[in-house]
């Protein structure tokens, strides 16, 4: 099972059920260090924070397909969870990191200028930023 932080269409339980057969919705959460930007689909950019929620699923191939990994629309990266990995979840729903899908702003039609302060492929830029900045996901108080 993989813990995933979602912040767009997959925050809607009805939408999740059209993409995944096996999943468990977790609590609302906040990704600190990345802010939401919108285009045809939402994405993340350096700075700020983004509200979302956590879910757990073994079906990462289905999520990769939904997010257009093979077309380069999104890349999947790991972001540390705060609170020793528990992030406010039941003990069976724990991890040290959460998978996060970050969209390529050029391919998603994002109007805002989004600059990742590193070089390399889009995925390398996002990964380097996460590794060198205080990007974390924490549970959000209800």
List keywords for this structure.
alpha+beta; 38% strand; six-stranded mixed sheet; Hypothetical upf0131 protein ytfp; 142 residues
Please describe what this structure looks like.
The protein has 142 residues and is an alpha+beta fold. The chain has one domain: Hypothetical upf0131 protein ytfp (Roll), CATH 3.10.490. It is 20% helix and 38% strand. It contains four helices and six strands. A six-stranded mixed β-sheet has the order 4-5-1-3-2-6. About 4% of the residues have low confidence.
Q: What helical percentage do the residues reach? A: 10-25%
Reported CATH architecture: Roll
User: What is the number of strand segments?
Assistant: 6
CATH class: Alpha Beta
CATH topology heading = Hypothetical upf0131 protein ytfp
| SSE order | EHEEHEEHHE
Query: Can you count the helices?
Result: 4
Give the strand order, joined by hyphens, for the main sheet. 4-5-1-3-2-6
Strand content: 35-45%
Intertermini distance: 25 Å
CATH superfamily: Gamma-glutamyl cyclotransferase-like
Low-confidence stretches are: 88-92
